[in-house]
Design goal:
The complex is a heterodimer of chains A (619) and B (203). With 619 residues, chain A is α+β, with helices and mostly antiparallel strands. Chain A is built from 15 helices and 22 strands. Chain A has an 8-stranded mixed β-sheet, sandwiched between helices. In chain A, strands 12-2-1-16-22 form a 5-stranded parallel β-sheet, with helices on one face. Chain B has a single domain, classed as P-loop containing nucleotide triphosphate hydrolases (Rossmann fold), CATH 3.40.50.300. In chain B, helix 4 links the parallel strand 5 and strand 6. Classes of the chains: A alpha+beta (619), B alpha/beta (203). Chains A and B meet through helix 5, strand 8, helix 12, strand 12 and helix 15 of A and strand 2, helix 3 and helix 6 of B. Chain A: This is Rab proteins geranylgeranyltransferase component A.
Chain lengths: 619, 203
């Protein structure tokens, strides 16, 4: 299809469709700004994207082919008097690294196994090149040639890490409960391993997130979704339980009042202590203040709660480390408790079809208010005037497009123009497709947040999210497991020890009662936390959005978007509610449905009144 | 939400090249208007019309592309949880017909398996400028197991029929699904929207 030219004049040009950029786009369009929103990829949401299985294979492949820098073209003919050029970087070669893919399931269906030359269960997926490449093709039309350098490391030692052998004998019987197969509607006998061919064939049933986050139900993202009415574009599931990994077992963390009462792993005394502690946490006391600056663990110890409760409170509720100061630990605990019970038994929501939906929802809002969208389209350079302001950009087709403000994903900006903390920090990510839940439950499909404290000294805290197929992110009969931590080493070095401890892989042959890993991917992603909106070697009306950060919630991106919006339009309201389409036809109907029932069933004091909190207050 | 006054709620999504008359079809059906000119519709997200079919109230939520089709940049989330798709082309524009396979690929990738798709050839009021023969479109639709209908948003030809036929088909499928107890496709409202959640405590 011969694409028409873009209009040549906008108020705000935005490059990159990650979360922060998309929120800025929605906010600007909403108040009448003419917005052009571009992305060099053929898909939305950049490093915040979700992919089908085949789409992910294509993404992996694209990150293997390091594209050569495009021949720098001379755009000086488009320059006007007194203007200078700033070139943007052609491709993002730095934000993703250390990709490693493993396939632990058989290549073909089991019936055809005999024909397969590879022994089952040990097939290693080299480059995923046999994936369906049609899925996401357009981005590769720009890339020049393939780099033979293959980043996938061969894993030659099938032995794995020596640690897990010692651990396996300590496994308590509770962890070895019967498999959850019956719950899946499959009998134990018929439970057949899903082959790689099936994963590819049913690939579109997966929506695999590059980042793994959850939405705090009173966090700034949820508040913004509600306030702006962007929430109408997506649906959400409750995270149904919080689990933790402890002494080689996965345990459920009781957090709501009902959970605590129902908990079988807590003694009556512990229940009483936990109740008292959580209730007392809600208010700041002098006793707490006395611990300011001292570790939260010390504060917890002095409450004489016992090991069980200390572990839950530190790792799963406050989600902090042992040396986190008390005031920070308590603030996190309060935030957790405030979020609890707004929608369900845990403080978290997860979007159906994956997190990649969220930026797209904001893009839709922007489009509804006139934003112009163009994927597979980038900006080559900025035109800067004498006052160090960006007057226009030159797009990938050589068209000059004028703008008053330019917002850009930092991965488009050359390193020498950016001021970043050195060395750049990274996140380690692992994505697993497994065949069973980490903690079988008889109440059907569960969405679990799992906190994994450091498995040994020097190892990072790992956040794990296990998604079931009702979130529309994985094939029925499989689970999608996301692991995230701050990088110490490569993603494989950081996370594979956790994987081998908690799951069954070819390296853990004796652990067949655990969920089996069918397929997994490791990679590192640059941590967006270190990139500031301003203060770079760039024109004053150019604003940088970082990529995803390592926090569990979305506050960082939302705060960035709000900051940028306030720089561009200091007088305007940030994402006021969009008119409700139902109001157009049904006059007088209220904007939000009114209904009975309080919103709070956490039982920790606060009642569920709907407060219109200002999202920027989350710190 | 129990006070909502309908028996069925269906999400219908329009797709097709820019300028084929998608917005006009929606406006004609929901408001009885034919908007003159090609002004982009700012701030309109989806339109709602409740119709009665055999004594049952059916609420149709009809979504438009918000212009994102212009540069082939429709968000995947637009297709999510749609019960029906109206794939529209302009009978006076060969190019809009030739793009249909591209649209079908997108549907296959992002829409749910059980989505009902109908092919619509719009602008039959401009018969003298027709570039795509009816037979050709019918053959194409049949090969893709889609329903086919030709409409004029301007003259209001077949517009009502288009949406009512779709509604009937969706009711039939919904009843069938209930019988089969086949719940692989999420119906709207199965997940929870936040605004819905913000007032109710559900588990």
């Amino acid at each position: 299809m011969a694409a028409e030219d873009l209009p040549s004049e906008f108020d705000v040009v935005i490059l990159g469709t990650g979360l922060a950029e998309s929120v800025v786009a929605a906010a600007c369009s909403r108040v009448g700004q003419r917005v052009l929103h571009l992305d060099r990829n053929s898909y939305y949401a950049a490093n915040w994207a979700s992919f089908t299985f085949n789409g992910l294979l294509t993404w992996i492949q694209q990150h293997h082919e390091e594209s050569q820098p495009e021949e720098v073209q001379d755009w000086s003919s488009l320059l006007e008097e007194g203007e200078e050029l700033i070139y943007l970087s052609y491709s993002d070669s730095t934000s993703i690294s250390n990709l490693q893919v493993f396939c632990f399931t058989s290549e073909e269906d089991e019936g055809e196994e005999a024909q397969s030359p590879d022994p089952p269960n040990t097939t290693e997926e080299e480059t995923a090149a046999n994936g369906d490449e049609d899925a996401v093709k357009a981005a590769s039309t720009d890339s020049t040639n393939e780099d033979p350098k293959d980043k996938i490391k061969e894993v030659t030692d099938g032995e794995g890490e020596g640690q897990q052998t010692a651990d396996s004998e300590g496994v308590e019987p509770t962890a070895d409960l019967p498999r959850p197969s019956a719950i899946q509607g499959q009998s134990e006998a018929s439970r057949k391993k899903i082959s790689y061919a099936q994963l590819v064939k049913e690939g579109r049933q997966f929506n695999i997130d590059l980042v793994s986050k959850l939405m705090f139900s009173r966090g700034s993202l949820v508040d913004l979704l509600i306030k702006s009415n962007v929430s109408r574009y997506a649906e959400f599931k409750n995270v149904t339980r919080i689990l933790t990994y402890r002494h080689g077992n996965v345990e459920q963390v009781p957090c709501s009042r009902a959970d605590v009462f129902a908990s079988r792993q807590l003694s009556v005394v512990e229940k009483r202590k936990l109740m008292r502690f959580l209730t007392s946490c809600l208010e700041e006391t002098e006793e707490q203040q006395a611990y300011n600056g001292r570790p939260y663990l010390e504060f917890l110890c002095d409450q004489q709660l016992g090991d069980n409760l200390e572990h839950f409170l530190l790792h799963s509720i406050a989600m902090v480390t042992e040396d986190t100061p008390t005031e920070v630990g308590l603030a996190s605990t309060r935030h957790f408790l405030r979020c609890l019970g707004r929608y369900g038994n845990t403080p978290f929501l997860f979007p159906v079809y994956g997190l990649g939906e969220i930026p797209q929802c904001f893009c839709r809002m922007s489009a509804v208010f006139g934003g112009v969208y163009c994927l597979r389209h980038s900006v080559r350079c900025l035109l800067v005037d004498k006052d160090n302001r960006c007057k226009a950009v030159i797009d990938s087709r050589g068209q000059r497009i004028s703008c008053s403000h330019f917002v850009v994903d930092s991965s488009y900006v050359a390193t020498e123009q950016k001021k970043v903390t050195t060395p750049t920090r990274f996140l380690s990510r692992a994505i697993l497709i497994t065949d069973a839940s980490i903690l079988p439950s008889n109440s059907g499909q569960q969405v679990s947040m799992v906190t994994v404290p450091p498995i040994a000294a020097g190892f990072p805290v790992v956040m794990m999210v296990e998604l079931c197929s009702s979130t529309m992110t994985c094939l029925p009969g499989t689970y999608l497991v996301h692991l995230t931590c701050q990088s110490v080493g490569s993603a494989f070095d950081d996370l594979s020890p956790v994987v081998t401890k908690m799951f069954h892989t070819p390296e853990t042959d004796d652990q067949e009662t655990r969920p089996s890993v069918l397929w997994c991917l490791y990679f590192n992603m640059a941590d967006g936390l270190d990139v500031e909106v301003e203060g770079h070697n760039l024109p004053s009306n150019v604003y940088l959005c970082s990529g995803p950060d390592g926090h569990l919630g979305h506050d960082h991106a939302i705060r960035q978007a709000q900051l940028i919006f306030q720089k561009i339009l200091p007088e305007e309201d940030f994402c006021p509610p969009a008119p409700n389409p139902e109001d157009v036809l049904y006059d007088g109907e209220s904007l939000l449905p009114t209904g009975g029932g309080g919103g709070d069933n956490s039982g920790w004091g606060e009642k569920g009144e709907e407060t219109k909190e200002n999202p920027q207050t989350e710190e | 939400m129990s006070m909502e006054d309908y028996d069925y709620l269906f999400k219908i999504v329009l797709i097709g090249n820019a300028g084929v008359g998608k917005t006009c079809l929606v406006r004609r059906f929901t408001q009885g208007l034919f908007p003159p000119g090609q002004g982009a519709t700012i701030g309109v997200d989806f339109m709602i019309k409740t119709v009665e079919i055999k004594g049952e109230k059916v609420k149709l939520q009809i979504w438009d592309t918000a212009g994102q089709e212009r540069f082939r940049s429709i968000t995947q989330s637009y297709y999510r949880s749609a019960n029906a798709l109206i794939l529209t082309y302009d009978i006076t524009c060969e190019d809009s017909f030739r793009c249909l396979p591209e649209w079908l690929r997108e549907i296959e990738q992002y829409a749910n398996n059980q989505v009902v798709t109908i092919l619509v050839g719009n602008k039959i009021d401009l018969a003298e400028k027709r570039e795509v023969l009816r037979q050709r479109a019918e053959d194409f639709a049949e090969a893709q197991s889609m329903l086919y209908l030709e409409t004029s948003a301007k003259e209001s030809d077949n517009v009502e029929k288009l949406f009512l036929d779709l509604a009937c088909e969706l009711i039939r499928e919904a009843k069938q699904n209930k019988l089969d107890n086949n719940d692989t496709a999420p119906m709207p409202g199965e997940g929870k929207t936040i605004s819905y959640l913000s007032c109710c405590s559900l588990n």
